[in-house]
């Protein structure tokens, strides 16, 4: 419920506060941690409760969901935090919020024991992956690439290591690691979602025929 409320509230506030109600033109104020930013931060951190449940054995998370949670939190706190005025930030926030609204409203649909009862809902949910996930990934990639010069010019999070290590820690390494590792991970996750969609819609069609 918290994720649904946060996501809907964020989309509403973006629409209400944006110039001429143009949601895509909204920009977060610099050095002004307003309620909207705080709300989105909470929305990104809330899934960590699921991670804690996963580690304590209460709830089992699939590997791709676990990794996605960590990546999304890092994109906000480790990328956007340094490049808040980038034009792609608001696009990423909107797509993330839409993704959460779709996901959690569908979870509510499942909680009412309506799975496969309405084929159109299952079809739209499973097909939304093709658009939402792809757009979200490429926006993340663009943000990371465009934040690299900001990190380099500002010498942010550069740590001198003892001489015997023969290198200094540079936070840009984390960005390059993301770029290199995320491409095969994106392909793997996309294939997984495609197979999942095919399986779910096949079962939905069988259920529809039985009715």
Automatic annotation (TrEMBL):
Protein name, entry field: very-long-chain (3R)-3-hydroxyacyl-CoA dehydratase
Ranges in a coiled coil: none
Membrane topology qualifier: Multi-pass membrane protein
Main location, first listed in the record: membrane
Pathway stated in the Swiss-Prot or TrEMBL entry: Lipid metabolism; fatty acid biosynthesis
Family to which the UniProt record says this protein belongs: Belongs to the very long-chain fatty acids dehydratase HACD family.
BP GO annotations: fatty acid elongation; sphingolipid biosynthetic process; very long-chain fatty acid biosynthetic process
Gene: Contig11860.g12691
Alphabetical keyword list: Fatty acid biosynthesis, Fatty acid metabolism, Lipid biosynthesis, Lipid metabolism, Lyase, Membrane, Transmembrane, Transmembrane helix
One MF annotation (Gene Ontology) recorded for this entry: very-long-chain (3R)-3-hydroxyacyl-CoA dehydratase activity
Gene Ontology CC terms, in alphabetical order: endoplasmic reticulum membrane
Regions that span the bilayer: 65-84, 130-151, 171-193
Localization per Swiss-Prot or TrEMBL: Membrane
PANTHER family: VERY-LONG-CHAIN (3R)-3-HYDROXYACYL-COA DEHYDRATASE
First-tier enzyme category under EC: lyase
A Pfam cross-reference name: PTPLA
Species this protein is from: Stylonychia lemnae (Ciliate)
